[in-house]
Design goal:
alpha+beta; 5-stranded antiparallel sheet; 3 helices; 5 strands; 26% strand
Length: 133
């Protein structure tokens, strides 16, 4: 089954307001739906994108509407690359220390994104997820 019709690139920025982010991400997903036809891949991409953009606004930018989250997406024949950068100071990511039995209110998002990604990188305030198609 062909997953991709054509290659696709997106580069956009959104302020750290979760209501605005919701509409912004929906618009990006509508554009991706025209390129990626596999529903299970789109489900993963939707979850990855929602988690990363929300994390950037909440944890990186502390909900500051004057700070922005940048999203870069590149879709090619065999992969989709999602890069999300916020204006925060960055953090050290240690997914191995996550304990699913510790019922914290945060911390699961990056574990989920890492699990859905074939490649996952954190560099200060930039997170990259690569999913092979």
């Amino acid at each position: 089954m062909d997953v991709i019709i054509l290659s696709f690139k997106f580069d956009g920025t959104v302020c750290s307001d979760l209501h605005i982010i919701k509409d912004f991400v929906e618009d990006v997903l509508d554009k991706l739906n025209k390129v990626i036809k596999d529903e299970s891949v789109m489900f993963d991409v939707k979850l990855i994108l929602n988690e990363l953009v929300a994390n950037g606004a909440i944890h990186g930018n502390s909900y500051d509407r004057n700070k922005y989250v940048n999203i870069f997406i590149n879709v090619e024949d065999d992969f989709i690359r999602i890069e999300v950068t916020d204006e925060g100071n960055g953090f050290k990511c240690d997914l191995k220390s996550y304990d699913p039995l510790n019922l914290k209110c945060s911390g699961r998002g990056l574990v989920i994104v890492s699990g859905l990604s074939d490649e996952f990188y954190v560099e200060k305030n930039k997170i990259t997820s690569v999913k092979y198609l």
